[in-house]
Design a protein that fits this description.
Helices cover 0% and strands 57% of the residues. By secondary structure, it is an all-beta fold. Strands 2, 4, 5, 6, 9, 10 and 11 form a seven-stranded mixed β-sheet that branches. It has a four-stranded antiparallel β-sheet with strand order 1-3-8-7, with no helix packed on it. The termini are far apart.
C-alpha cells in the first residue's frame, strides 16, 4: 500500500486547508484510513480517522473544525480543516490500517498556520 498526501501549505489563522490522501497498491487490504499529525517536539497524534464500524473519530482539539471524508471509488481520504489555529501547525500524515496488523504511513505534508 502506498499513500500519497497532498494539500499542505501556509495559511493564516482562521483560514482553511484541505488535505487529500490517495491510496494505491494493495488497497483491498486496507481496513480504515485516517490522518495523524506531529508538531515540532511533540509526539504524533490522531487527528481524525474512520473506525472499523464506519464511524469517525476526531481529536478533541479539532472537533467542530475538521471533517474527514472518503471517496471509495477514488481510494482517497480527505481532511477539510476550517478555522485553523497556530496550534494546528504540524506535519500531517495519512495512515492506513490494513490486514494482518499492517499499517502504512504516507510522507507527511506540512501545514503551517500563522497568527
Amino acid at each position: 500500500v502506498q499513500l500519497q498526501a497532498f494539500g499542505g501549505g501556509l495559511v493564516q489563522a482562521g483560514g482553511s486547508l484541505r488535505l487529500s490522501c490517495a491510496a494505491s497498491g494493495s488497497i483491498f487490504s486496507i481496513n480504515v484510513m485516517g490522518w495523524y499529525r506531529q508538531a515540532s517536539g511533540k509526539q504524533r497524534e490522531l487527528v481524525a480517522a474512520f473506525t472499523s464500524g464506519g464511524s469517525t473519530d476526531y481529536a478533541d482539539s479539532v472537533k467542530g473544525r475538521f471533517t474527514i471524508s472518503k471517496d471509495n471509488a477514488k481510494n482517497t481520504v480527505d481532511l477539510q480543516m476550517n478555522r485553523l489555529k497556530p496550534e494546528d501547525t504540524a506535519v500531517y500524515y495519512c495512515h492506513a490500517d490494513a490486514e494482518r496488523g499492517s499499517d502504512y504511513w504516507g510522507k507527511g505534508t506540512l501545514v503551517t498556520v500563522s497568527s
